[in-house]
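Quiz preparation item.
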């Protein structure tokens, strides 16, 4: 029952990620709350509250999933702005659209099924591009970063919220225990899907840590790149600008 994703070529990783998210779409929101003890809501609020965005802006939320970030961003761009929720997975996107509609959030939203590695938008389309807990699932992260830069307007900001490297040494064993022992069991119990949550834990460990991701953003062509750790580096917010 273990994924052999270490050796498989990238096309299979994409298929695997597709299966994981189709499988977890229905239980995704509940699982986020359980796994992070609700803290992901605070991270997301902070991520949006400190983003460079104003009323009337056009915003792209990549790997937008069930729409947590998009809903928060919508409060900031207002009715005059536009929010495009992009995700590669139809099931996640549908869950997101249903959630938005249930909350009365309809105007100013667009849903686009797309791969972050090749965006179906013209150059300089957006004031802000965000990707939250999504970049680590993308196979060709360099391509995704280049695409984020391309679709940004000059002066625009790209923001990445992602799991990162915990800073304190003493905390790492606890964190690994949580990731590799607790998470799959929660997944088995509440989502009947331990494998998907095992994949998620592994993908977190394999994601480039703070300085490496910052260097990747610089290499992609972003200016003024920087990051801020949240909760001791469990997650980090990376920023880059198009100049
Ligand atoms: N941003 C949402 C949030 O913070 O709750 C969802 C995050 S979820 C962990 C990751 C999402 O990334 C999934 O919805 C998945 O379908 C999407 N995804 C994975 N690979 C992708 C890709 N190459 N392009 C676009 N979306 C992708």
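Solution:
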């Amino acid at each position: 029952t273990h994924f052999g994703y270490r050796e498989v070529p990238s096309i299979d990783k994409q298929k695997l990620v597709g299966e994981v998210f189709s499988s977890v779409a229905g239980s995704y929101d509940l699982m986020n709350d359980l796994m992070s003890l609700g803290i992901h809501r605070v991270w997301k609020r902070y991520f949006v509250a400190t983003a460079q965005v104003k009323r009337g802006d056009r915003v792209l939320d990549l790997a937008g999933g069930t729409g947590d970030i998009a809903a928060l961003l919508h409060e900031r761009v207002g009715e005059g702005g536009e929010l495009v929720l992009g995700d590669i997975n139809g099931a996640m996107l549908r869950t997101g659209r249903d959630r938005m509609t249930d909350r009365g959030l309809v105007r100013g939203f667009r849903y686009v099924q797309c791969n972050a590695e090749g965006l179906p938008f013209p150059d300089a389309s957006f004031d802000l591009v965000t990707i939250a807990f999504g970049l680590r699932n993308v196979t060709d992260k360099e391509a995704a970063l280049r695409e984020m830069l391309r679709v940004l307007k000059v002066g625009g900001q790209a923001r990445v919220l992602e799991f990162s490297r915990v800073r304190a040494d003493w905390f790492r064993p606890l964190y690994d225990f949580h990731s590799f022992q607790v998470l799959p069991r929660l997944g088995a119990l509440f989502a009947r899907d331990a494998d998907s949550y095992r994949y998620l834990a592994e993908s977190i460990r394999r994601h480039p840590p703070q300085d490496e991701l910052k260097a990747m953003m610089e290499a992609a062509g972003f200016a003024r790149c920087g990051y801020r750790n949240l909760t001791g580096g469990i997650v980090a917010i990376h920023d880059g600008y198009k100049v």
